[in-house]
Recover the amino acids of this structure.
């Protein structure tokens, strides 16, 4: 199945021979298992069928002998034979049921692994409406956050501290693998962060459920995921029971600079985007996921590298629209591109899981060599290729 999804890559990289060898090996494995099963069935099925007939011969032979010895009457032998025939069919069916039961149990065990997965106790509790109201518009603080994926591994994030007060626009700049997505997933409690590391107001985020936290934080992930539905439906998902008008959808499409593209589609906003959004370009997918997140504003909107597939001009327009809409709310924009971060109130430069420098664009240009070099490099790129 994964080979089918990767068909474009297989063709473009000419990986056909390798895929064929892999598929052949899998088919051989399947053939071996199927043959083993067939051999067992070919042996036992006739044995079972013949056992039925052998039983009749035995009853008639042994019964005939006992009849001659006058130990049994003809009526008793006939009754016994009838009962045994009546019983043999349900008994054979029982054998088949045992096979079906065993196969079913294998499937059920796999499902149960997911269904019985333990939900942490804290996630089963809900904060009272009053407490939730008191958490609205509070500062997100990261205090000395250290995170490692596996207990014995080196930390991916090391002693990170910063605050995101309400209304502040914060940028995170870092090279590939610097730990930006890991930081994002700690902030939205996607990962099991250590306690006393991330706070909303004065509450540790590990002290209440993730469901409650996600009323305040929304994340637009690095790989946008779209459902096989229309553009409008993809925007409306996640708005809960609130009724959303088409004008609302149009509004967020305009903010995310997707309205122009949608206008060019034959079915406009009713265009079906296909499985995982195959009908859209990378940049269109990113902008659709931004529109979806903008429909229901939250206290902190995190954008993890979501503007990487749009040009600089569109990026600027999206950020301007976004900041206007989320004027009193906080935004955390993660990017490799300095251009996307120039307008931020504060930029955190991350390197190897540590905070290298903090400050606004003009301060960092003076104080942080890495920031200045990245900026200069990207300025040259922009001049060479303005789109
Ligand atoms: N689930 C995981 N298990 C183990 N290690 C991981 C996992 N996810 C990421 N890492 C490691 O953590 C480091 C940081 O990864 P992360 O995804 O946070 O980087 P990033 O800064 O977001 O990079 P990019 O700019 O490419 O998105 C990498 O070295 C990566 O190998
Ligand atoms: Mg990342």
């Amino acid at each position: 199945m994964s080979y089918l999804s990767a068909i474009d890559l297989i063709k473009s990289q000419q990986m056909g021979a390798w895929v064929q060898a892999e598929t052949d090996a899998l088919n051989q494995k399947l053939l071996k298992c199927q043959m083993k099963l067939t051999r067992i069935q070919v042996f036992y099925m006739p044995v079972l069928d013949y056992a039925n007939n052998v039983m009749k011969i035995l009853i008639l032979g042994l019964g005939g002998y006992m009849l001659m010895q006058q130990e049994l009457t003809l009526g008793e032998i006939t009754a016994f034979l009838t009962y045994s025939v009546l019983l043999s069919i349900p008994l054979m069916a029982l054998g088949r049921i045992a096979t079906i039961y065993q196969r079913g149990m294998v499937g059920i065990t796999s499902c149960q692994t997911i269904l019985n997965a333990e939900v942490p106790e804290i996630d089963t509790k809900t904060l009272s409406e009053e407490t939730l109201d008191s958490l609205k518009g509070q500062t997100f603080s990261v205090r000395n956050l250290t995170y490692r994926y596996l207990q014995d591994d080196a930390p991916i994030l090391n002693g990170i501290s910063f605050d995101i007060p309400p209304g502040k626009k914060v940028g995170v700049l870092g090279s590939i693998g610097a730990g930006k997505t890991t930081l994002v997933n700690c902030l939205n409690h996607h990962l099991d962060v250590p306690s006393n590391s991330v706070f909303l107001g004065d509450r540790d985020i590990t002290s209440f459920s993730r469901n409650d936290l996600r009323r305040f934080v929304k994340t637009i992930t690095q790989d946008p995921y779209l459902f096989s539905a229309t553009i409008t439906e993809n925007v409306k998902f996640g708005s809960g029971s609130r009724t959303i008008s088409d004008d609302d959808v149009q509004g967020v499409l305009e903010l995310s600079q997707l309205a122009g593209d949608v206008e060019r589609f034959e079915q406009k906003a009713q265009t079906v985007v296909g499985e995982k959004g195959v009908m859209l370009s990378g940049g269109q997918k990113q902008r659709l996921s931004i529109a979806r997140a903008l429909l229901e504003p939250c206290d902190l909107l995190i954008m993890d590298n979501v503007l990487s597939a749009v040009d600089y001009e569109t990026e600027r327009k999206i950020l301007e629209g976004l900041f206007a809409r989320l004027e009193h709310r906080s935004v955390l924009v993660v990017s490799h591109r300095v251009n996307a971060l120039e307008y931020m109130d504060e930029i955190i430069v991350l390197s190897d899981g540590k905070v290298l420098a903090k400050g606004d664009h003009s301060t960092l240009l003076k104080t942080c060599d890495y920031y200045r070099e990245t900026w200069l490099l990207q300025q040259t790129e922009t001049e060479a290729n303005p789109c």
User: Anything to note?
Assistant: Residues 2-115 form one domain.
